[in-house]
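RESIDUES AND SHAPES:
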Amino acid sequence: MEASKIRRRILDEHTRITGWLAELEHLASRLRTGEPGIVEEVQKRAREFSTFFLSHLDLEERILVPALRRAGDESTEVAQRLIEEHAAQRLLVKHFAEGTAAETREPVDVAKAVDAFVADIRADMKAEESVELDPTLLHDPD
């Protein structure tokens, strides 16, 4: 697959992730108001997002990592860092899903966890878009 198509596919998924994150933030704001039944909705959406996000990481490792490795020495190092970051993100997602599912957590604490998680994922996507998906690094052959 051409680098430009890989970049587009990943960016399209980032757009979907951004939508999920906005929804999670909205749910967190509803948690803060004490809306009845919202904890269960947050738990459900956190599980669904986690499944989608883990699938996204797998996709990046299937198509983006090999493309980076083909792009040269500097890109090979970037590909390795991406794999390491994905390992950390998988743990983050696991803790997020487990944390939102905990019966003993207060809604305001779940809301804080959602906010922190959303901020982490947004920062990771921004960094990825400026490094791994940079057209000067990941480019189509001339």
Notes: The helical segments are 3-32, 38-70, 73-101, 107-130. Residues 89 and 121 are 8 Å apart (CA to CA). The chain has four helices and no strands. Residues 3-130 form one domain.
